């Protein structure tokens, strides 16, 4: 589906222009942006983006541990990175994303 030149579905004013959006490490998709900065995807790309997000993220709930909050790391990630209990990690936040950097490099 080509949205080039179509009216922006967010503001109903701007005209969409194609650009390449990076949705993951090394993964670029066709996306469309209006002059007001609203981003739209074609249905096909939207499905791909959703599938990718589901595939890379597992929903977890935050639990209280003492005075801190904790999010459990899914078993698949523990296995993938060969994480061990009491291993030290570096936690940082940017926007609404929390990054946990593992000390040992398991690749
Ligand atoms: Zn717009």
Short description:
With 107 residues, the chain is an alpha+beta fold.
Please give the structural blueprint.
Blueprint: E1 17-24, E2 27-33, E3 39-40, H1 43-56, E4 62-65, E5 68-71, H2 75-81, E6 89-94, E7 97-102
Antiparallel strand pairs: 1-2, 2-3, 4-5, 6-7
Bound molecules: zinc ion.
Zinc ion binds next to loops.
Main sheet makeup: 3 strands, antiparallel
Percent in strands: 25-35%
Tell me what the CATH architecture of the largest domain is. Answer: Ribbon
- What is the C-level CATH assignment of the largest domain? Mainly Beta
Mean pLDDT over all positions: 85
Q: What ligands can be seen in this structure?
A: zinc ion
How many DSSP H or I helices?
2
Number of strands: 7
Low-pLDDT residue intervals, each spanning 5 or more residues: none
Q: What's the CATH topology label of the largest domain?
A: Pemi-like Protein 1, Chain: D
Number of domains: 2
The class by helix and strand makeup works out as alpha+beta
- Percent helix range: 10-25%
The Rg value, from CA coordinates, equals 19 Å
Sequence of secondary-structure elements: EEEHEEHEE
Shape: elongated
Major sheet: arrangement of strands: 1-2-3
- First-to-last CA distance: 37 Å
């Amino acid at each position: 589906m080509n949205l080039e030149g179509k009216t922006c579905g967010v503001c109903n004013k701007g005209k969409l222009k194609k650009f390449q959006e990076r949705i993951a490490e090394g993964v670029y998709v066709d996306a469309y942006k209006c002059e007001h900065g609203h981003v739209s995807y074609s249905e096909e790309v939207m499905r791909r983006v959703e599938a990718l997000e589901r595939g890379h993220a597992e929903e977890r709930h935050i639990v209280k541990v003492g005075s801190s909050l904790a999010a459990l790391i899914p078993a698949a990630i523990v296995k993938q990175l060969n994480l061990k209990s009491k291993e030290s990690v570096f936690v940082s936040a940017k926007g609404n994303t929390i990054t946990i950097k593992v000390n040992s490099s398991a690749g």
